[in-house]
Specification:
Layout: H1 2-34, H2 51-56, E1 60-61, E2 64-68, E3 74-78, E4 81-83, E5 93-102, E6 108-119, E7 124-135, E8 140-143, E9 146-149, E10 154-157, E11 161-165, E12 168-172, E13 174-179, E14 187-192, E15 196-199
Antiparallel strand pairs: 1-4, 2-3, 3-5, 4-5, 5-6, 6-7, 7-8, 7-9, 8-11, 9-10, 10-13, 11-12, 12-15, 13-14
Length: 203
């Protein structure tokens, strides 16, 4: 009886030695048959950035600059994109500019400009492409271009501008927001160059 059991066991082992390798080959061949060819174009892109373009024209996305002027005002400037100067005569430039100036007396002014260019030697930020400035004192001013000092509170426009404020509608040839020379710590918004005021006490 024991001999018959041993004989059956031996034959089972012998059959398994044949069947199992064959089964493994069938499984592997099935995997290769059903696997599809990898298409490199289906790969998920790492980033939607043109590397060659970035190498040719380096730039920064969403940069922020913050500092204090000599008179204690806080100036913060952000941009959608900024580029370093290319060549000796080219200045750093930016697009989609936003700036906020907070003076020590609690007032503030927000500026929005399409373009900007930094004059590092003069410590000036030239804003262009249409500039809008809103002050906490209630003035809304639009101009083609403005300049803002990085070292002191001094924002000015030497081009024709339009504004609305507490007194009404204003048209002028220039504007300047700066610290009062007679009363340090207080700030003045002045208009010049053929100023035209349409008085509206309900503004």
């Amino acid at each position: 009886m024991a001999a018959r059991h041993d004989n059956l066991h031996s034959r089972l082992v012998a059959w398994l030695k044949v069947i199992l390798p064959l089964a493994a080959l069938v499984v592997l061949s099935t995997l290769f048959l059903v696997s599809r060819t990898i298409d490199p174009s289906d790969a998920i892109p790492l980033a939607g950035v043109d590397v060659e373009d970035r190498a040719r024209e380096p730039r920064m996305t969403a940069p922020t600059w913050a500092g204090l002027t000599d008179d204690g005002a806080a100036l913060t400037v952000t941009a959608a994109e900024a580029r370093p100067g290319q060549g000796g005569d080219s200045a750093p430039s930016a697009t989609g500019l936003r700036a906020r100036l907070e003076t020590p007396d609690g007032s503030a002014a927000d500026l929005v400009a399409a373009t900007g260019r930094l004059d590092d030697a003069a410590r000036l930020l030239h804003l262009g492409g249409g500039v809008v400035i809103d002050t906490t004192s209630g003035y809304h001013i639009t101009s083609d271009a403005m300049t803002a000092s990085l070292d002191q509170t001094d924002v000015k426009s030497d081009t024709a501008l339009a504004a609305t404020g507490p007194l009404g509608q204003i048209e002028a040839g220039s504007m300047r927001l700066t610290e009062s020379p007679d009363k340090p710590g207080t700030y003045l918004l002045g208009f010049g160059g053929n100023v035209k005021l349409i008085y509206d006490p309900k503004q």
